[in-house]
């Protein structure tokens, strides 16, 4: 009977040890899950803040035309895709658009309707420009505006990169949707 009691006690101790090991494992897994939940919650909150910020600014998408086109054909390319040539009305946007391009591109500004009065594709007038030195100069009846990507040119900067150019010149356009 004592032997049976010892066996029962030994089995009981083994069961307790096994349960303690399982408890330790479950406690560790619980801590890991709590950490994952905390991390995912923080990520979700950041994504929500980013989403809310985007909604305040309005969702925006920029893309380039795939072929070299005149200013009006570039605009039509954008419009066929539910967009229009980009309107750049802040320094922040000018810097951003300049960082996207690696060639001369059409933007949504021209003075085709009224010489000397720069108008955006949404019919608003230009309030702030980012012209290359000496531009716009209408040198050869130039009515359409390009963002002139020429980082090697003396005096070029993202805030000094617009040039008036012949509207029939072929280049890609940058669209905004």
Automatic annotation (TrEMBL):
Residues 2-57 form a coiled coil. It comes from the Eukaryota. GO terms for molecular function: carbohydrate binding. Residues 57-176 form the C-type lectin domain. CDD domains: CLECT_DC-SIGN_like. InterPro entries: C-type_lectin-like, C-type_lectin-like/link_sf, C-type_lectin/snaclec_domain, CD209-like_CTLD, CTDL_fold. Keywords: Coiled coil, Lectin. This is CD209 antigen-like protein 2.
């Amino acid at each position: 009977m004592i032997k049976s009691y010892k066996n029962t006690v030994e089995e009981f101790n083994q069961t307790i040890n096994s349960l303690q090991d399982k408890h330790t494992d479950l406690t560790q897994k619980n801590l890991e899950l709590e950490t994952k939940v905390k991390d995912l919650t923080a990520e979700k909150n950041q994504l929500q803040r980013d989403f809310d910020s985007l909604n305040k600014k309005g969702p925006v998408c920029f893309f380039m035309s795939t072929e070299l086109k005149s200013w009006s054909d570039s605009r039509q390319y954008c419009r066929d895709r539910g967009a229009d040539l980009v309107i750049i009305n802040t320094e922040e946007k000018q810097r951003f658009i300049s960082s996207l391009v690696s060639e001369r591109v059409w933007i949504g500004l021209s003075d085709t309707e009224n010489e000397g009065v720069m108008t955006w594709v949404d019919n608003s007038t230009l309030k702030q420009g980012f012209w290359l030195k000496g531009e716009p100069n209408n040198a050869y009846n130039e009515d359409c505006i390009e963002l002139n990507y020429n980082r090697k040119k003396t005096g070029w900067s993202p805030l000094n990169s617009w040039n008036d150019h012949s509207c029939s010149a072929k280049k890609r356009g940058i669209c905004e949707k």
